[in-house]
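Retro notes (design track)

What went well: tokenization of the new backbones is finally stable.
What didn't: we kept losing track of which sequence belonged to which structure.
Fix going forward: every design gets posted as structure first, then sequence, in one message. First example under the new rule, 175 residues:
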């Protein structure tokens, strides 16, 4: 019987232990090479699912992102995700490809800390420039777009292609 199958009386934390034990025994990629692989994965895509939470409230929002200087930036008009961000700066986001068979899995989970970037600050303008949005256009809006910056703290990559490179398809990277 697979250790991942639920046994009577098995709690969620038991699943975590099994996963950590399996990861410890897997063939890990060198840290710098894994970081490059992850950055390429992020740069090849532009949409993620951003999860925010506070006490008994959880929200997961599909949203476009930009990756710049090691951080993930998200412009947003507003929404329920800000309920979680107001009380809890820790977020999770998932970037993934559509399922195309078990031998072609590609997904990335990012754990990190979010911060709000002040509208029209140098960092905000840098993102506008990156997206080729004229500052004047943003200033014409009734209210400037919110800019969320996610500073990644860890990554969990699932990529079937890693097996061809001689590595386990699951890789973890702490920053």
């Amino acid at each position: 019987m697979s250790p991942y199958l639920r046994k009577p009386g098995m709690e969620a934390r038991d699943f975590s232990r099994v996963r950590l034990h399996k990861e410890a025994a897997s063939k890990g990629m060198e840290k710098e090479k894994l970081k490059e692989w992850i950055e390429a994965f992020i740069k090849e895509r532009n949409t993620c699912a951003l999860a925010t939470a506070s006490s008994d409230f959880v929200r997961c929002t599909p949203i476009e992102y930009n990756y710049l200087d090691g951080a993930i930036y998200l412009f947003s008009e507003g929404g329920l995700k800000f309920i979680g961000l107001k009380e809890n700066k820790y977020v999770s986001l998932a970037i993934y490809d559509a399922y195309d068979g078990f031998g072609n899995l590609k997904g990335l989970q990012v754990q990190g800390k979010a911060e709000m970037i002040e509208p029209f600050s140098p960092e905000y303008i840098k993102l506008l420039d990156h997206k080729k949005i004229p500052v004047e256009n943003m200033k014409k809006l009734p209210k400037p777009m919110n800019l969320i910056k996610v500073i990644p703290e860890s990554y969990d990559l699932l990529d079937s292609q890693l097996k061809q490179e001689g590595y386990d398809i699951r890789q973890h990277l702490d920053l």
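Added context from the reviewer: The CA atoms of residues 46 and 162 lie 22 Å apart.
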